[in-house]
Amino acid sequence: MARLALRKSVNAVMFSLTFLCTVACLGVLFFILGYLFWNGGRDLNWNFFTKLPAPVGESGGGMANAIVGSGKLLLIASAIGLPIGILGGIYLAEYRGKTFPFIVRYATDLLNGVPSIIIGIFAYTLIVLKVKHFSAWAGGFALGIMMIPIALRSTEEFLRQVPSSLREASLALGATQWQMILTAVVPAALRGIVAGIMLDLARVAGETAPLLFTSFGNRFWSEGFDKPTASLPVMIFTYAIGPYEDWHRQAWAAAFVLLAMVFFFNLAARGVMSWRRAQT
Amino acid sequence: MQITVPHRMSQKSQIQTVIPTSRKRQMDTRATNGTRERAIIRSQNFSLYYGSKVGVKNITMDIYPNSVTAIIGPSGCGKSTFLRSINRMNDLIPHVHHEGRLEVAGQDVYDKRTNLVNLRQEVGMVFQKPNPFPKSIFDNVAYAPSLQGIRNKGELQHIVEQSLRAAALWDEVKDDLRKSALALSGGQQQRLCIARALATKPRVLLMDEPCSALDPIATGRIEDLMGQLESSYTIVIVTHNMQQAARVSDRAAFFCLGALIEYDLTSKIFSNPSKKETEDYVTGRFG
């Protein structure tokens, strides 16, 4: 009888412990959200989204260049990271082999674990030092490298989930292997691949370290892609450690916008996955 | 109407095999016509191995055009292996190798020069579980023709309608071809898969237990369909269901443990088989 009582109490303790940890987890998230909203929400106005930063002390400034800059960087990063990642994922999922795929997977996982600042240094050495100036190309390149592992693994996972009966059906109708991949397998896995892209963007949108010495930052608009470019994470960094109260408030607002952006991508990923295809 | 054929083969049993003739087809006369025609599929001592395991061994048989040939036998005896060898779907399995010769329309299937794409367009396949693509009905049937390069909308429409009519599905889906194929019932999906295979205008249609995942009514419709398709196509069907084989086929091949035991007119296999194993199987003593 005592045995049973002990087992029951262990059960109860563990349940309470795990429940508390879950609450703590959610609590942290909601705390950050609430804190950001409280501190940053006040300074969000039309100016924030449309005006350039104003000199300290003057009101009416904004972070329009940082928002557009982040957009530019994500564009370049997607152009570099997504094709490599998705095509690599297709290769791993569809073509047979033992050693080479194993090496590719392992190397990708290692790349995923490389600290982002080291990737920044890599982009710095490769591009910035050569052309002797900061640019959106360098920043986008660094972010693009970070996008590759996630896109690759997620594409591979979703392609593997496509049942082999679909592949057989396609081949039995006279498709070559590439035709089968392009017209039957990828369309079936498309939802998952798009969700993977959204999550990839969410991960990379907030990276700061690699941008510190590749795109560097800009107080003004940067035309084209070949100039130093402002971005939200770097702007937050610069303003948060600055000495001005004004700047701190702007940093809170920028942090809120950045978080909202990341949340948007995450929710979009969820939405894509659970979107019910119309039956008619 | 049903014919009850009493057995005198073995003195130990008086089991009667029932051959239903409700789908009235001139089984005997048509089949004997076939012997005078050239075979469309010839297998000469064909064997297929999965690594070191035997899939089928020394299969020699001729399949004649415009007929339904059933391959029957217990589980694991190589029926599907042989069927899938005809359109080289077994190539997808690693470590597979073969011996002997397998010809379709006079062309060695395993020849290095054989164009796999052309082969699979000439020899269509329908699988056990209906596997339509998660696309619209129209896109499913138009899949193979568009792979072949046909882009003209009118031509595709025509092919889709022809194939759906041939598969006896047109009347049920003609109002909305944009509907998702996955919204159809199991029997409709299987007929869609048949339409999809017919879109390439194949000469041979391979069917790997096409009705085993379907209810009896859907099964009946597909069996009727086979009867209609027989005049234009050669059908080879693998089936676990002996009565189905007796209903639909002109000739039947009995496989057991990877070997071809007996291959003859269906009426003979079911009423007066030459081999004891065949008799044991069709009378239900094993398998």
Provide a concise account of the structure shown.
The complex is a heterodimer of chains A (280) and B (287). Chain A is mainly α and 280 residues long.
Question: What do you see in this structure?
Answer:
The complex is a heterodimer of chains A (about 280) and B (about 290). Chain A is an all-alpha fold. Helix content of chain A is about 75%, strand content about 0%. Chain A has helices at about 1-40, 45-50, 65-95, 100-115, 115-130, 135-160, 165-170, 175-205, 210, 230-240, 245-275. The longest helix of chain A is centred in the first third of the chain and has 39 residues, at about 1-40. Chain B has about 290 residues and is α/β, with parallel strands linked by helices. Chain B has one domain: P-loop containing nucleotide triphosphate hydrolases (Rossmann fold, 3-Layer(aba) Sandwich), CATH 3.40.50.300. The longest helix of chain B has 14 residues, at about 155-165. The radius of gyration of chain B is 19 Å and the shape is globular. The interface of A and B includes residues 96, 165, 172, 175 and 183 of A.
